[in-house]
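Example 9 (inverse folding). The structure is encoded as follows.
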């Protein structure tokens, strides 16, 4: 399969150390033996801290986004280090570049592309661009809930949801740099217009990526 994996920055740099890069490196090397892999890495805490400093300096939101993109690319470089020779040794800045680098047969690792969306959207656009079979979005929650699980004990995990229903869910959410929600509008619109499979799973447990690829019942599937 040709698989696009978005690893949220909130997961990979959560503890400000190398551990998750190392764990994901191992799993991705294994998966690459039978699959063609494109990885998109998020910005997480470091992106938010840099964006805050930029915003305090009075720069506009697009420039704040641009700072966030730089940080996602730094995180992508760290994952490339963890993957060693399994990875293409350069971070593509565009979808065309990702496609071009993929002819090397190596794992492609990138961060953001342009302002006004999140790395989830990059993952979704990339999946369409490369005609991916599967888009796995590794986030900091188990999937999508019918209400906020941090506030409501009776919140239930949604196993399957349509892209349309999801669009309704998030339409009033924040669009400031560093604050894109669970999945941003652009990502869901891409999922809606294309026919690739999308699974959102908890990335704090890297083995969930293997379960998602193996078709196990896990997370939220967007249909
Ligand atoms: P992320 O998409 O990683 O956002 O990019 P995040 O909020 O840290 O998400 P998680 O928690 O890792 O999943 C960080 C910031 O970089 C900018 C946005 O401002 C985003 O909030 N960005 C990223 C872009 O503007 N365009 C991109 O293509 C990617």
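The amino acid assigned to each position is listed next.
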């Amino acid at each position: 399969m040709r698989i696009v994996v978005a690893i949220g920055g909130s997961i990979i740099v959560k503890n400000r150390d190398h551990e998750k890069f190392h764990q994901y490196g191992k799993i991705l090397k294994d998966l690459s033996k039978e699959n063609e892999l494109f990885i998109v890495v998020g910005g997480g805490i470091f992106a938010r801290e840099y964006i805050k400093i930029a915003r305090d300096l009075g720069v506009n939101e697009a420039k704040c986004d641009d700072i966030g993109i730089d940080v996602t690319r730094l995180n992508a470089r760290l994952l490339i280090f963890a993957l060693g020779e399994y990875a293409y040794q350069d971070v593509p800045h565009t979808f065309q570049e990702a496609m071009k680098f993929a002819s090397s047969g190596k794992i492609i690792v990138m961060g953001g592309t342009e302002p006004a969306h999140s790395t989830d959207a990059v993952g979704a656009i990339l999946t369409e661009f490369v005609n991916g079979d599967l888009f796995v979005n590794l986030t900091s929650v188990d999937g999508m809930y019918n209400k906020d699980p941090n506030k409501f004990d009776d919140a239930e995990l949604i196993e399957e949801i349509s892209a349309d229903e999801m669009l309704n869910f998030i339409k009033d959410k924040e669009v400031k740099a560093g604050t894109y929600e669970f999945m941003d509008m652009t990502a869901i619109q891409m999922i809606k217009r294309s026919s690739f499979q999308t699974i959102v799973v908890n990335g704090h447990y890297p083995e969930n990526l293997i379960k998602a690829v193996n078709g196990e019942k896990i997370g939220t599937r967007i249909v």
